[in-house]
Amino acid sequence: MSPAGEPQLPATLEGFMAQALQMELEAARRYQEFADMMEVHNNPEVGAWFRKMAAVEGKHADHIMAQMGWREVPAQVVGAPMLAGMTASEGAATDEIHYLMQPWHVLQLALASEERAEAFFAQLAQLATHDSVRQAALALQQEEHEHVELVKAWLLKVPQPDANWDQDPDPPRYDD
Questions:
Q1: Model-level pTM greater than 0.85?
Q2: CATH pick for 13-81+97-155 out of 3.90.550.10, 1.20.1260.10, 1.20.1250.20, 3.40.50.300
Q3: Percent of the chain as helix, strand, coil, to the nearest 5
Q4: pLDDT digits (tens, 9 = 90+) for 76-93
Q5: Is 169 exposed, middle or buried (0-12, 13-18, 19+ CB in 10 A)?
Q6: What's 166's DSSP letter?
Q7: End-to-end alpha-carbon separation of the chain, Å?
Q8: 130 — phi, psi (to 5°)?
C-alpha cells in the first residue's frame, strides 16, 4: 500500500503483465494440486476436471508469455507478491475441496475464480494511471469474461449433485 492507503499499481505494461502471468501460473499450480488430491482419494473423474482447468490456466500463461515476447518467466514474477490491496487469486482455497466432490463442484470453483479475475482486471483498469496498463487490463478483463461464459456453458453439461453428495457410506478410517 502506498502512504495514502492506495493499492500499488504497476507503472509499466511489463510489470502489469508480470502480475497477470503470476495469477495464471498460481491458478494452474493450484488446480494441479487439487487434481493430485482427487487422485489420491480415488476420484479420478474430478481429478481429470482439475487437470483440464490447470491446462486452461497454463494456456492463459502461455498466451501472456507469447504476447510479451518472453521466453522464460521474468524474474520479477518468481516469488513476487500480488498487488497490495487487490484480490487477484484465480485459485480456490484447499478447504473448498472435498474428496467426494463432483465435476459440477469443480466448475463452481472455476466459475468463482474466473469471476474474481474478471473483477480484478476491471478494478485495475479503473485505477490504472498508465494507458498501456489500462488497455491491457481491459483486454484481460474481456478474456476473463469469456472464460466465465465458457465455464457457465460447461456447467450446463454436467449434472448438479444430489443434496447428499458428500455422504460417504464407508468413510476413510485412520488408525494409529
A1: no
A2: 1.20.1260.10
A3: 60, 0, 40
A4: 765 444 554 444 455 566
A5: exposed
A6: T
A7: 48
A8: -110, 130
